[in-house]
Amino acid sequence: MELLIILTILAYMLSAGAYIAYLFLQKNNLQRIGFFILMAGILFHTATIISGFTKTGHLPVNNLRESLSLAAWAVAGMFLTIQYKYNIKVLGIFAAPLVTLVMIVVSLLPDAHVQVSDVFKNFWLISHVMAIFIGEASFALAGGIGVLYLIQENAIKTKKHRFFFKRLPSLDLLDIAGYACIVVGFTLLTLGLITGFVYAKSIWGRFWSWDPKEVWSGITWIVYAILLHERLTVGWRGRKSAIMAIIGFGVLIFTFLGVNLLLEGHHREFTRF
User: Fold this and answer.
1) How large is the C-alpha radius of gyration of the chain?
2) What's this model's pTM, rounded to 2 decimal places?
3) Considering the chain, what is the average pLDDT of its residues?
4) What 3-state class would DSSP assign to 236?
């Protein structure tokens, strides 16, 4: 399994290098190389997750190392999906380095083999975790697209059509792709919360317990619900949508890591070292 992790990190690193080179040199071959190497990395990564599942008999999320690995896998997979749908080539300069960094952190964390409790062996847990992780990956990419949007908008407003202006797609395409990521993320987050309620009822006997993770997941849901509501009713597009996507990503990071590491709650069991 360690070999698979090494191969995964190596592939992601090479992909990140290819995308960074593409950013500076603007050679389409470099972007294609980065894309296909990232695909190879996902294959290695998927094999790692399947190996963990086969070995333990449950979804590998019983510590911080495994949770971060699954999060990186979800981001990489969603990036390939968005890339295929919208062909935002330069988005790779955000996605590839991000998953590389996360997987390097994963490799540095201890691979502690802990006894698995019954809370990990539940159908609703698998549904809950997969929906949440893929939804959060969509939000992460929306945040990255939001940053690209603000950079491109600034280049247009200041009429400094230099480095980034020549390398970033149109504002309309960035806005559409970012909105699509948020819609997918919000749908999956909603599904993840619902399955989480059912899972909590089956394990702890109650749908809601005011656990810090539950509270901040609800806050995250509200942030993106406001974004979607304002976009559909008031017409929040472009800059406002991009800023909200970035803010939402910040809230998401705290919900995913900060809450579990800094606050007490039964979700800490999923992010122990």
Assistant:
1) 19
2) 0.89
3) 88
4) coil
DSSP string, 53-97: HHHHSS-S-SSHHHHHHHHHHHHHHHHHHHHHHH--GGGHHHHHH
Q: How far is CA 68 from CA 60, 87, 102, 265, in A?
A: 10, 27, 7, 19
Question: Would you list the DSSP string of 120-182?
Answer: GS-HHHHHHHHHHHHHHHHHHHHHHHHHHHHHHHHHHHTT--STTTTTS--HHHHHHHHHHHH
Which pLDDT value is given to residue 207?
74
Long-range CB contact pairs, 47-55, < 8 A, 24+: 47/4, 48/1, 48/4, 48/5, 48/8, 49/73, 51/1, 51/4, 52/1, 55/1
Cα–Cα distance for residue pair 128/247, rounded to 1 Å? 24
Give the pLDDT mean for 122-145.
90
**pLDDT at 273 (0 to 100):** 46
The proportion of the chain whose per-residue pLDDT surpasses 90, expressed as a percent, equals 59
What is the phi-psi region of residue 112: left when phi exceeds 0, alpha when psi lies from -120 to 50, beta otherwise?
A: beta
